[in-house]
């Protein structure tokens, strides 16, 4: 089976979304003193490659434990908008060429190529979805939208969260900070796996994201 890992590495002082908790991976038990090695992780639920569920934005929204594991696995349409530059908007026109693939898919996976800048200053200036483009994806019956940036909405000018509002209020999941989408072949079909930790009433969770060619 051809499997492509789409996950950023979790490590101490990695980049996090502005105002999110810092990440620490600390040794608690070590081989030279203890019988084994155990690390302690300190991080927010939206660390690195992660999933957002409706409770993230909606007080009455569903949480991680309201979903079966099958909700996080599905056929995905890869949408290549890697010609977009700093802070540029992704419009309906950019998505429409992929309309046929989107209609046949459970998930829409948007490739900007900005994972190249993860852990650098430029990462905050990523392209983002227009409100109309988010409404378009919703109208296509998509169950999850993934992207290789901090957010589906602008992080540089974070004055609105239109895409988050539209998706999370319609039970459409979001995966952010994907990596390695350039390793996928636009002409091939993939099942995407974005399975979170089973956190009771969780609003989000890091995932080990990968694509399996079918
Ligand atoms: Zn998030």
Descriptive overview:
This protein is an alpha/beta fold. It contains four helices and 13 strands. Helix 3 (131-139) packs parallel to helix 4 (162-168). The chain binds zinc ion. Zinc ion binds at residues 46, 50, 52, 176, 204.
What's the CATH C level?
Answer: Alpha Beta
Q: What is the number of E strands?
A: 13
Overall tally of domains: 1
Radius of gyration in whole Å, from Cα? 17 Å
Return the string of H and E elements.
Answer: EEEEEEHHEEHEHEEEE
Could you say which overall geometry the principal axes of the C-alpha atoms support? globular
The largest pleated sheet is described as:
9 strands, mixed
C-alpha end-to-end distance? 8 Å
Average pLDDT level: 97
Q: Structural class given helices, strands, pairing? A: alpha/beta
- Helix run count: 4
CATH domain topology: Glucose Oxidase, domain 1
Outline of this structure?
By secondary structure, the chain is of the alpha/beta class. The protein has a single domain (45-213), classed as 3-Layer(bba) Sandwich (Glucose Oxidase, domain 1), CATH 3.50.30.
